[in-house]
Design brief:
single chain, alpha/beta, 8-stranded mixed beta barrel, 5-stranded parallel β-sheet, about 25% strand, elongated
Length: about 700
C-alpha cells in the first residue's frame, strides 16, 4: 500500500469537518490519498457506481440519512468497498452494531488529528481484503462441496460429534439429526465393519499416512452400495489426532463393472457356465483337499458332443448355440450343489464331482448324462438328437497339477470316441502309456515333416477285363531312423489330429502326380495311366485347395483327367456344402473323383445324388466277407450294379485270393486292387511291373 495512490470517498455534510479529514490525510507519511467529497448520501452512492474507490469515510449523520440506516444503504449499494464510520457520537453500542454489520472501523471525529484516521484506513483496506479472500474461499469450498459427487464428513475426535454434508446424507440416507460417527458405522455391512475400523485405527495411530477404505453402506432404500471413504487426521502439537475430515465416494457402478469383468473372465459368455480357467482353479482346490485326506475324493468328466461340424452345418450356428445352452442347463440340473460343470470350449464340457468314493459314483453320473442326451433337444421348430463321448479321470494319488487330471479325462474321452462315440471310458494306466507313445510319435512325425522323411509306394489298379494295369494309387511311407518304414495306419490318424496331414497330403499328391506323369511318357497306353490319391478332409478346409491342386497338375504336367482324388463319405458329411463346391470347381478343371470305402458310411446314396462321382471303391471288408456271408456278396453285387446304372467305374479293394477275383469277374466288376495282384511297391518295383507288361 505504501506505493499506491488510495482513492477515498468522503461522505460528509459539514465542510469544516471535511477539510479536517483532507488535512489529516495530506499529512500522512508513506501514503498518498486522492479524496473526493460528497455532501449527501445519495451523491456518494451515485459516485460509488464507478467502483473506483479503495475506502469510504462515512459520516453517520447526514441530511438525507441518519444512524445505522446510513451505513446499511451504502453497504447494500456498494458491498465491494470497505467503510470507516466517522461520527461525533460516542456511542459504544452503536459502534459495536456497525462493526457487526460489516463496517471496518468506527472513529470519533475528534480523534482524527491524532493519526488514527490513516492507520484506520490502512487496516480497514487490508482487513476488508482478507475478509473478501476468506469469503471467496469459503464460497468456492461451499460450491465444490455442493457440486461434488462426494459426500464430505468432518469428525471432531475430542467431542465425538461429526459434520456430514447434504450429499453424504443423501448417499447414506441419514437424517439431519445424525451428527455422530456411529450414524455412519451402524450402516456399514457387517462383513466390512472390522476392516473399516482397522483402517481408521491404523491411520489414527500414525501407522498409515492416509485413511482409505472400500466398504458397503446401507442406503435409504435398505440396500447396500459400495463407497470409498478417504480422510486425513489433524493432530495437535503433541501429535494426538484432534480432528479428522474426508470424503465418501459412491463407487457402486465401478464395483459392479469390476464384478462383471471378473465374472466374464471366469465364465463362458454363451452358457454362463464357469470357463476352463475357473474349472481348473476349482479342480486345483479339490486336488489339495484330496492330498490332505489321502483318499480318492473327486472325479473329472470330460464331455464332447459328437459330430459338431455336421450339426452346425445343418442347423446353423445360432441353432447350434441354442442347443449348447439347453445342454448346459440340463447338466446343471443333474449335478449336486457342490459339483462344478464348465464349458471348456466349443462342444467340450467338464464336470468336477466332489465327495466321490470310487469309480462307480462317476460312471453313474456319466450314465445319467447319456440318459439326458437321449431326450430330444428342441431347437426352434426342430427336434435334435445329440450324443456325447465322455472320459472319466479319478482324482487318485500321484497327480500334481489339475491340468494333468483334465488331460487324462480328455484322453479317456478320445478313447470313447474311438470306441464308437455315445459312450464313456475311464482313464487307466494303459491309456497313459499309450498317450506317452502317441506324444512321442507326434514329436517324431513333426520332425519327419520338417526333414521330408517320406517315400512313396504305389499299388497297381488292374482292369478285370484284360488284367492289365490302368493306374496306381499313391501310398505314403514314413522312414524313421528307429522305427524303420512306418505304414500309414500307424501315423495318419496322428497327422489328422495335429494338422500335419496338410503338408503331408500336398507332398503325396505332388509326388504321385509327378511319378505317374513320368510313367505315362515311358509306358504309353490308351487310355493313359491314371494317378489315384486319397485326400484328407483337412485339405478341403484350406482356402486355396482348388488353386493348389491346379498348380500341382500344371507343374508336374499330369493331365487333370488322369488324376483321381479319393475322398471318404465322412469328408462330405463333415464339410457339407463347402466340400461339394470344391468338388464342383475341381471337376470343372477335369479332375475325377472316387468315393473311398463306399458302403461303410451312412449317407452314401444321398451324396451320390448331389454329386456325380467317377468311381466307387468297394471297401475291403466286403471283399473279405464274400466267401463266408451270402448277404455280403449280395451287397458287392449291388454296388457293382449301382455303378453300372450310374455310369461309374467300380474298384474292388483288398483282393487277396483267386476265388475273390473270380467272383468279382463273374459280377462284371470293372477294376480291382489288392495283394493278389501286388503289394504296394516302390518306384523301381512299379516300373518292373510296367516293363514286363504284367497281366492277371
Amino acid at each position: 500500500m505504501a506505493s499506491d495512490v488510495l482513492r477515498v470517498l468522503l461522505v460528509e455534510d459539514n465542510p469544516a469537518e471535511a477539510e479536517l479529514v483532507r488535512d489529516a490525510l495530506s499529512r500522512a507519511r508513506g501514503e498518498r490519498f486522492v479524496v473526493e467529497h460528497a455532501g449527501r448520501l445519495q451523491a456518494g452512492l451515485d459516485r460509488l457506481v464507478a467502483n473506483g474507490f479503495d475506502v469510504v469515510l462515512l459520516d453517520f449523520s447526514l441530511p438525507d440519512s441518519v444512524g445505522l440506516e446510513t451505513y446499511e444503504r451504502l453497504r447494500e449499494r456498494a458491498p465491494w468497498v470497505p467503510v470507516v464510520i466517522l461520527t461525533n457520537l460516542d456511542d459504544e453500542e452503536t459502534a459495536v452494531r456497525a462493526v457487526r454489520e460489516g463496517a471496518q472501523d468506527y472513529l470519533l471525529k475528534r480523534e482524527l488529528a491524532s493519526g488514527l484516521l490513516v492507520r484506520s484506513i490502512r487496516y480497514a483496506i487490508e482487513r476488508f481484503r482478507a475478509e473478501q479472500a476468506l469469503k471467496n474461499s469459503e464460497n468456492r469450498y461451499a460450491l465444490a462441496v455442493q457440486g461434488a459427487n462426494d459426500g464430505i464428513w468432518d469428525w471432531d475426535l475430542a467431542g465425538g460429534t461429526a459434520y456430514f454434508s447434504p450429499r453424504w446424507r443423501a448417499m447414506t440416507g441419514c437424517d439431519d439429526a445424525a451428527s455422530t460417527v456411529e450414524a455412519w458405522f451402524e450402516r456399514v455391512h457387517a462383513d466390512d465393519l472390522r476392516g473399516l475400523q482397522d483402517a481408521l485405527d491404523a491411520h489414527l495411530a500414525g501407522d498409515e499416512p492416509h485413511f482409505e477404505h472400500e466398504h458397503r453402506l446401507r442406503d435409504a432404500a435398505g440396500g447396500y452400495r459400495w463407497v470409498l471413504a478417504r480422510g486425513l487426521a489433524v493432530r495437535d502439537g503433541g501429535g494426538t489426532p484432534a480432528r479428522m475430515a474426508g470424503s465418501l465416494t459412491d463407487i457402486t457402478d465401478r464395483k459392479r463393472a469390476e464384478e462383471r469383468l471378473l465374472h466374464d473372465a471366469f465364465h463362458d459368455a454363451l452358457t454362463e457356465l464357469p470357463n476352463r480357467s475357473l474349472f481348473l482353479d476349482r479342480l486345483g482346490l479339490a486336488l489339495e483337499q484330496s492330498r490332505r485326506h489321502k483318499r480318492i475324493s473327486f472325479a473329472v468328466l470330460f464331455l464332447d458332443l459328437d459330430r459338431r461340424k455336421p450339426r452346425h452345418d445343418s442347423l446353423g450356428h445360432a441353432a447350434g448355440d441354442a442347443l449348447l445352452v439347453e445342454f448346459a442347463g440340463r447338466l446343471r440340473g443333474c449335478l449336486r450343489p457342490g459339483d462344478t460343470v464348465a464349458r471348456l470350449g466349443g462342444d467340450e464340457f467338464g464336470v468336477l464331482l466332489t465327495e466321490v468314493d470310487g469309480p462307480e459314483d462317476a460312471t453313474r453320473v456319466a450314465e445319467r448324462i447319456q440318459e439326458l442326451l437321449r431326450q430330444p433337444f428342441a431347437v426352434g421348430s426342430t427336434e435334435v438328437i445329440s450324443t456325447a463321448s465322455i472320459g472319466i479321470a479319478l482324482g487318485a494319488a500321484g497327480y500334481e497339477r489339475p491340468d494333468d487330471i483334465l488331460r487324462d479325462a480328455d484322453t479317456a474321452m478320445y478313447r470313447a470316441k474311438a470306441a464308437g462315440r455315445a459312450c464313456f471310458q475311464v482313464f487307466d494306466q494303459a491309456m497313459h502309456s499309450s498317450v506317452a507313445a502317441l506324444l512321442r510319435l507326434e514329436m517324431d512325425l513333426r520332425r519327419a515333416v520338417e526333414r521330408n522323411s517320406f517315400v512313396m509306394h504305389y499299388q497297381p489298379i488292374v482292369s478285370l477285363l484284360d488284367g492289365r494295369i490302368v493306374g496306381f494309387e499313391g501310398l505314403v511311407r514314413w522312414v524313421d531312423p528307429e522305427r524303420g518304414v512306418v505304414l500309414p495306419d500307424r501315423f495318419i490318424s496322428v497327422a489328422e489330429e495335429t494338422g500335419l496331414i496338410v503338408p503331408i497330403g500336398w507332398w503325396v499328391l505332388a509326388e504321385t502326380c509327378r511319378q505317374v506323369r513320368l510313367w505315362q511318357g515311358s509306358f504309353p497306353v490308351s487310355p493313359p495311366l491314371y494317378a489315384s490319391v486319397n485326400i484328407s478332409g483337412k485339405l478341403f478346409g484350406q482356402p486355396d485347395v482348388v488353386e493348389r491342386v491346379w498348380r500341382i497338375v500344371e507343374e508336374t504336367g499330369l493331365p487333370a483327367t488322369s488324376l483321381r482324388l479319393e475322398i471318404t463319405e465322412s469328408v462330405l458329411m463333415d464339410h457339407g456344402d463347402v466340400a461339394l463346391r470344391v468338388l464342383s470347381e475341381l471337376r470343372a478343371l477335369g479332375v475325377q473323383f472316387s468315393v473311398d470305402d463306399f458302403g461303410t458310411g451312412f449317407s452314401s446314396l444321398s451324396y451320390l445324388q448331389r454329386f456325380s462321382y467317377d468311381t466307387l471303391k468297394i471297401d475291403r471288408s466286403f471283399i473279405a466277407g464274400m466267401a463266408d456271408k451270402a448277404d455280403v456278396g449280395a451287397i458287392v453285387q449291388s454296388i457293382v450294379g449301382l455303378g453300372n446304372v450310374l455310369g461309374m467305374n467300380v474298384v474292388a479293394e483288398g483282393v487277396e485270393t483267386p476265388a475273390q477275383l473270380a467272383r468279382l469277374r463273374a459280377m462284371q466288376c470293372p477294376s480291382a486292387q489288392g495283394y493278389w495282384f501286388s503289394r504296394p511297391v516302390d518306384r523301381e518295383g512299379a516300373e518292373l511291373l510296367l516293363h514286363t507288361g504284367q497281366a492277371w
